[in-house]
Structure prediction request, 202 residues.
Amino acid sequence: MEDLYQYLMTLGYFKTRKKFGEYTLYVNQSALIRIVKNDIYLKSEGQLAGTLLDHNCCQYRRDMPKNRFLLYPYYNITRLFNSQREFCEQLIKEAVDELDVQKESDRPAANGDFKQLPNIDNRHVRLLKNIGIDSVSKLREEGAVRSFMQIRRSVGPRIGVALLWQLAGAVEGKHWSLISQEDREQLLVKCKLTNYEKSMFH
Prediction:
């Protein structure tokens, strides 16, 4: 994997994170690649995903209890990386460009009105102002997780996880339904909810 790491370092700020035996590789603060049992999975939620599927790059699948499974927007490029290195590096560069464009388009106005953000209506505005968050910039500063937990402490556990998805989408400038399953799991982990509370949200 050293060759892969060296190449990623040429594309921008690079870091790795290990969780549950899997590595996630970040470029410019965006999750780009997952390493699972020595297989390399490249992230794409745009047109590049179709190109990867055309080259027989299988989508990452995680098996769940009761014969269920989750699909993540990552595609296995191990074969391409080993046999068509130059072409694979081109795909990785395209994925980085795709993520950069998405990040820029998702960025909400810093000091605009709450209602300029997706997922936010009068009810959300009241909940946010009740905990002292009265501007878009303040919401972005606090973040979705901290804001959600403050509201939950203020209102009580009857506040469902849908609010967490809505706040996360608002911060990122996209509809809550576009938040990936992986990102939802990470948000729940950051909230440090009990297993019972998490089970209520699925």
About this structure: The first helix runs from residue 2 to 9. Residues 114-191 form a domain with the DNA polymerase; domain 1 fold (CATH 1.10.150.20). The CA atoms of residues 83 and 167 lie 43 Å apart. Confidence is low (pLDDT under 50) at residues 194-202.
